[in-house]
Amino acid sequence: MNYKTVLRLFAILLVFAFLGSAAAQDPVQVLFWDQVYGNATQEAGMAQIIANFEEANPDIEIVLEVMAFDVMRDIAKTSFEAGEGPDIIYYDAGPAYAGILANAGLLLPLDAAYEANNWDERLIPISREWTTFGGHVYGVGHELEAQGLYWNKRIFAEEELELPATFADLVALCGIFRERGYEAPMAGGFGDPFAFPYVHNWYNILANYVPAETVAAAISGEHPWTDPEIVASLDIIKDQVQGSDCYHEDAYALGFLDGNNMLYTGESPMMLMSTWAMGFFTDEVKDEFGFMIMPPIEGRPQGMIQLMGSAWFIAADTEHPEETIRFLDYLVSADTIQLWLDAGTLPAQANVDYSPYEMRPVYRDFTNLVATWDGQVAYHLDVLTPANFNEAMWETFADLIGDRTTTQEVAERMDAEMQKAVEEGRHVDITG
Amino acid sequence: MTDSIRHFFANRKLRDYATGYAFVLPAMAMYVFFVVYPFFYTIYLSLTKWDGAKPVKEFVGLLNYQELAADPRLWSALSHNLIWIVLGTLAPVAIGLFLGVLLWRGVRGMVFFRTVYFLPVVLAPVAVGIIWKWMYNPRFGPINVTLKALGLDFLAKGWMGDPYVALPALIFAGVWGYFGFCFVIIMAGLQNIDMEQIDAALVDGANGPQRLWYIIIPGLRHVLTMIIAFTLILGVNVFDIVWITTRGGPGRATHVIGTFTYVQAFRESYVGYGSALAIVMGTVSLVVSFIFISIRERGSD
Fold first, then answer.
1. Can you tell me the distance from the alpha carbon of B218 to that of B224, in angstroms, rounded to the nearest whole number?
2. In this predicted complex, what is the ipTM?
3. Range list of H helices, A220-318
4. Distance of alpha carbon B32 from alpha carbon B25, whole angstroms
5. Residue A191 contacts B where some CB pair is shorter than 8 Å
6. A90 DSSP β-pair partners
7. Contact across the interface for B267 and A387, Cβ inside 8 Å
């Protein structure tokens, strides 16, 4: 072997050594699709969580891509199907969204990860319930939420009014506020597509009027939506919105954010909304608010709707399942709780003592409520119901606001779409 | 083989053909890839039941088309398209023609007017939708604020939330975003009008409307045919401005076939059904254009 051969061999060895060390040093990149943040605090919170995780796990780099949830819904299917999706995605749970991906084999089953990381103990039950399809669990839930009534503490004190003890008191309170010059006693804008605040208010009425097991059976396609009790709950929401003095006369044309702003600016003393609206209570919002579950409808058991914002799911074709699950586990660890609270969201972690954490008083009301609630736990429909049912529900509710349909017709349309979904296997069974 | 190649390069006609095809080929490849292939693939999808994610598509033949024929939502959407086609074609063409004739002979500030009228055309339809969503805001939109300031509170409405007013309101926004295009094209067409005919008509005592009807409009027939055909197709394919403002709501009040197709394919995950809708939409575009051009051609004979 002459010296030229030796030099060539040495050069080749150097190249391989360089490549090997470069590969060894490069952290694994985990692509994370998240939903767009409502404010700078939320954005900073996620950035801090990622920074903390990467510091503790230098072999992993989280590549964050943020998009609006409706954009995500549009591109998730095609992206995952084409193998161009992320490793982990924060996506809507339920059969209309993640269920479609799971049933197509595009999401990674997390049964083993749940067991290995003790998630069933650490997370609230709906984290598993809402992300289970075909007998396997696919997601980890986040953003524990409830639906209820926000009330402006300053206004109630100035007006010397008591909080409503019953639903009838709530409606009467609207009349009192209107007499005292409040153009919209209840903040709300139903003009956005889906008329969703109006629909969500109906979920509240449903939760307090119809037993949870009946609603669960209807969601599972085992009970008709034309049940007279369900139709009666639709009559109540129609009367409350259109027949009472609660909302602005143009509520049907106002956007959702415009409607909410009436609460934040003090124009409206009350708002029926999910707790995720707490994320909008930035430093610019000066008034303090209280939060309570909607007061009970006379003679009916009170129900608290518990829901998750969305859930984290992992792509079935991820090249880094171990690293991605490690990141997912960190997202639901105790290390992140204060950061989530700062961002105005409550993590879906179970049995958390929130007393040492800093939070706005309105969050404290909510955490206390969750910790002490021993009443009926009710359902937020559109995350659990199929896509065709949801579209029909939103469409017919908008017609209901415009007096172009009746509550009986709304119920019949929902029932027809649920039956169609059951025939096509697009529903979930939550009764089991 | 070598002789054939030699013969090919020796033959000038063949060389010219080859050169032509070589220039056309890249564009043709793009056209096939982005238009022809998706068109035929959409036809295939329209014959299946598929949710957009499952690896297997269930072949169902013409079932989607049968369901479409009996679907009241389709007919409702098509009726909205028809309204859009009529109002959304007549209005911008009429406005463009009126402004074109008004400014044709030259006025001070001509460049300013042309720029101002054309500005909305430069905006993306999404931007037009966002602008008009704010304009129509019932609480602080300029339209209602102005109406109330003028004591016309009874005219102030929740424009986008009122199912009886939302569609005309959207069409108005669409016309605002498009009339400038008609104006500019008509202005270009007016440059070719024979001024001697106008002068002769003036001498004969023809008034403005008579000159417009008997000289100007016939002189613009090819330009008007092009604009109207183009606008008709836009009226069938309208999507952006509706989706960004009302998403087809309230209820189904502003659903057009484009938004209905989108909801079926991407929101309800009925990709096969949505594909059938897309084929229907394309067919309607072709039929509408064909009918108009046939009538136009027959009229010019």
1. 9
2. 0.83
3. 228-238, 256-264
4. 10
5. yes
6. A312
7. yes
Biggest alpha carbon–alpha carbon distance for chain B:
89
Half-sphere exposure of A349 (CA within 13 A, CB side): 21
At A161-204, the pLDDT tens digits run: 999 999 999 999 999 999 999 999 999 888 877 677 889 889 99
Give the torsion through C-alpha atoms of A246, A252, A254, A257, to 10 deg. 70
Residue percentage of chain B with pLDDT more than 70: 96
Q: Given an 8 Å threshold on Cβ–Cβ distance, is A80 in contact with B53? A: yes
With CB atoms and an 8 Å threshold, state whether A391 touches B252.
no
**Which residue bears the tokens 């179970």?**
A350
For tokens 């008004």, the residue is B102
Instruction: For residue A77, give the nearest of B53, B157, B247 by CB distance.
Output: B53
Alpha carbons B243 and B224: distance in angstroms, whole number = 29
Nearest to A404 among B158, B251, B268 (CB): B251
Q: Please tell me the distance from the alpha carbon of residue A352 to that of residue A366, in angstroms, as a whole number.
A: 13
Query: Which residue's structure tokens are 């009192």?
Result: A176
In angstroms, rounded to a whole number, what is the distance separating the alpha carbons of residues A424 and B151?
Answer: 55
Q: Judge whether A344 and A281 are in contact, CB under 8 Å.
A: yes
Residues of A in contact with B130 (CB under 8 A): none
Question: Looking at the complex, does the CB of residue B219 fall below 8 Å from at least one CB of chain A?
Answer: no
**One-character DSSP codes across A308-322:** EEEEEEEBTT-S-HH
Give the C-alpha distances (Å, rounded to integers) separating B266 from A75, B45, B66: 9, 14, 21
pLDDT digits over A347-393, tens only? 889 888 898 998 888 888 888 888 888 888 889 998 899 999 999 99
Neighbours of B208 (CB within 10 A): 9
Q: Which pLDDT score, from 0 to 100, does residue A367 have?
A: 86
* Contact assessment for residue A213 and residue A303, using Cβ atoms and an 8 Å cutoff: no
Lowest mean pLDDT among A77-81, A238-242, B249-253: A238-242
Residues 143-162 of B with CB under 8 A from A: 157-162
A43: tokens are 């954005």
Cα(A223)–Cα(A139) distance, integer angstroms: 27
pLDDT score of B9: 63
User: Which among B52, B137, B158 has CB closest to A252?
Assistant: B158
Segment A113-136, tens digit of pLDDT: 999 999 999 999 889 989 999 999
Instruction: Please give the pLDDT value at position A239.
Output: 84
DSSP bridge partners of A91? A311
- CB–CB of A77 and B138 under 8 A? no
